[in-house]
Amino acid sequence: MTRMLPALLMSLIVATPGFAQDAAKPAAPPPTIVQVVRDAIAAKDFAKAEKLVLAEMAAHGTTPIAVEAFSWLGRGAVAAKNYPAAMTYAARTYEIVEEQLKTRKLDDEARLPIALGAAIEVTALATAGQGGRSDAVLYLRKEIDTYTGTSIIERLNKNVNLLSLEGTPALPVDSPKWIGTPPPSMASLRGKPVIVYLWAHWCPDCKVQGPVLEAMLAKYQSAGLTLVAPTKFYGYVAKRAPAGPEEELAYLTGIRDSVYPWMKAMSAPISEQIFAQYGVSTTPTLVLIDRAGNVSKYHPGQLTVEQLEPMIQKIIAPAGSVR
Predict the structure, then answer these.
(1) Whole-prediction pTM
(2) Is 198 exposed, middle or buried (0-12, 13-18, 19+ CB in 10 A)?
(3) 190 and 129 in a common domain
(4) What pLDDT was estimated at residue 1?
(5) 173-190 burial by CB neighbour count: b if 16+ within 10 A, else e?
(6) β-strands 285-289, 295-300: how paired?
(7) pLDDT > 50? residue 227
(8) Are residues 182 and 150 in the same domain?
(9) Full domain range(s) for residue 48
(10) CA–CA dist 107, 131 (Å, integer)
(11) Cα→Cα distances 67→95, 129, 172, Å
(12) pLDDT digit string (tens) for 1-57?
């Protein structure tokens, strides 16, 4: 018994949290219904995804998180090009949100706007996917009129732009507030190939995009490639600490100087209107404009050198030429 005592004491010490050599890691929170539904959709198990979200609604009602999860059924269906199912899911999501908006505002919390934006987006994409591109644009513009002034307006404009912006005159990028050089008018940019790089100070993908843009600008400088980099205020600075415009402007300038020093001599307009018109619900968003002042490519999201360079080669061609 005496020989066993040291080993027994040691086992108790090791087993006691206070004596543990490595602090126990906190348990990961359980996945939300949105996460499990998305996982099922990613695995192409659409029946499981629907079963999960319907069970959630049966147990807890049409809570905002349940409605957001339900909206993913439409997104999954449209990605799979099952357009009739996508339209059905989107219509039901829209109906649920409309019912809830009788007793609350859309932006009272964050999840219901995501669900409504998804329902409208899926309806437009499914309509366009079935040959109704013009009808999809008209539908989106009607919804934009309905939901102007809400948090989903940028998402709706993004979808209009995805369906209709390419081949049309570029939208203005001038603003009364900026860092760097004063924002140019579109008239002054005519004759130049232009990248409009819409970015956010908090955005990690934007910081990855930066070196790609820097390299492309250096490579095609002799062709006159020009960059304008609109951004906007978000009401916070590092770690989402709330901030007024003056403090955020200083923070924004610091991010520009440290992460994008090559942009110091370029214009960075600060404008919510530019973001709304260009539909920037995804950062970065890149818009490539040809020498005639028309949009050649509208792309929400990050681009690699291999993806971006052919787009640049297209816009540096002389105006009126086919490349």
Answers:
(1) 0.83
(2) buried
(3) no
(4) 45
(5) bbbeebbbeebbebeebb
(6) antiparallel
(7) yes
(8) no
(9) 33-164
(10) 33
(11) 10, 24, 36
(12) 444 434 433 443 334 444 444 556 678 889 999 999 999 999 999 999 999 999 999
